[in-house]
Every structure is written in C-alpha cells, then in structure tokens.
Design goal:
Layout (H helix, E strand, L loop, with lengths): L2 H6 L7 E4 L3 E5 L7 E7 L14 H17 L7 E4 L15 E5 L9
Antiparallel strand pairs: 1-2, 2-3, 3-5, 4-5
Length: 112
C-alpha cells in the first residue's frame, strides 16, 4: 500500500481539503509555494506513463478536482500551476500518480 493510499484510508493523518469518490486532495507536507496541495486518485496508478486508456475519465476527474480545490483555496484570480512528475528525472518520489497544485506566488519559467 502506498503512502497516498494510507492517507486516503485515514491511516496516516493529513490536512484533507476535498474528496470525491475516487480522489482526495490534501496539503503537501513539504510545500514549495504558499499554497501547495496534492490531488491523488484513490486507485493506485504508479505514474502517468502507466495510465491506460480506461483511466481517461479518472484523469479528467483529477484535473477537475484540482481546479475546484484551487478555487476553494482562493487561487482562481491569481492563477496556479499543476505539475505531474513522472520517473526519477521528472522528480517523482512516490510511485502513485498525483497532481501538485501550487499557487500563492508567481511561478518562474522554465521550472526546475
């Protein structure tokens, strides 16, 4: 069971911001911006590269969840960034697909 599955199952405490039947959003424990939360599917997909065509609806739901939670967190007017890390060179540290939503400050480009 991954760290994120344990958070979704309430086995590990976390500041949960929002939740749907197949996803959960909670604050990142090492924030990289004034607002930094994760949107995670409850079903473990190890990384975006391993998502299947049958996961398409869930992937869209995750983006909608990110947008609605960003709105709830007051990021609509100023904007925010959504990041998905894939593999070691992409910065992936937990093998469970998740969206980072960062906001509350200007984001630099290029990232990394």
């Amino acid at each position: 069971m991954t760290l994120f599955e344990k958070i979704a199952a309430r086995e590990i405490p976390s500041e949960i911001l929002a939740e749907g039947s197949d996803w959960i959003a909670f604050r990142d424990i090492a924030p990289q911006a004034p607002v930094h939360f994760l949107v995670v599917p409850k079903q473990c997909i190890p990384r975006i590269h391993e998502a299947k065509e049958s996961d398409s609806i869930l992937l869209g739901t995750l983006l909608q969840a990110a947008a609605s939670t960003a709105r709830q967190e007051g990021l609509s007017a100023s904007g925010y960034r959504i990041v998905i890390n894939n593999g070691p060179d992409g910065g992936e540290t937990v093998p469970h697909l998740h969206l980072h939503v960062l906001g509350g400050r200007p984001m630099n480009w290029p990232p990394g």
